[in-house]
Design brief:
With about 150 residues, the protein is of the alpha/beta class. The chain is built from seven helices and four strands; from the N terminus they run H-E-H-E-H-H-E-H-H-H-E. The chain has a four-stranded parallel beta sheet, with helices on both faces. The radius of gyration is 15 Å and the shape is globular. The termini are close together.
Length: about 150
């Protein structure tokens, strides 16, 4: 599916893999043109859990968080409350941490996947669904086996 469907609302919020040929400047331009908020995790610089948490602090700028996985989930859930037509969290070059710290990469991915399904869980429980569409995008090696749809 083309990237433009994300901005038009034709693509449901959630977790997707972004093709390598989509450049960061292109994504930044589209996000700006559509008033989306864009956060970028530069995966080339993320080899382990502590470097991942450093990026959470630098990129998402949480007010008070405990530098642990439970707090990371809370930080991602707070992103739903950003007043914007949509929010994109891009984690590029994810394969670096996947290769060097697979255990913590899998934990991060489980949390990202869980948060991407949060609106459906809230809807199923009858709770208020978050207002801001959240798109979590992974970009990196195309041969990395992950059970995530391509965008």
């Amino acid at each position: 599916m083309p990237l433009t469907t994300l901005f038009s609302g034709e693509t449901a919020p959630g977790l997707y893999r972004l093709k390598a040929e989509v450049s960061l400047p292109t994504l930044e331009k589209l996000a700006q043109e559509n008033n989306f908020t864009l956060f970028v995790f530069s995966g080339k610089n993320i080899c382990n859990q502590q470097e991942f948490f450093d990026h959470v602090e630098t990129v998402l700028k949480p007010a008070n968080w405990g530098r642990n996985w439970d707090s990371f989930e809370e930080v991602l859930n707070a992103v739903y409350k950003i007043p914007a037509p949509g929010v994109i969290v891009l984690y590029n070059d994810f394969q670096v941490m996947m290769a060097q710290d697979r255990k913590n990469f899998d934990i991060a991915l489980d949390i990202i996947m869980s948060v991407s399904y949060e609106p459906e869980r809230l809807k199923d429980r009858g709770d208020q669904v978050p207002m801001t569409p959240l798109y979590l995008l992974l970009q990196g090696e195309t041969n990395a086996a992950l059970p995530i749809d391509w965008l």
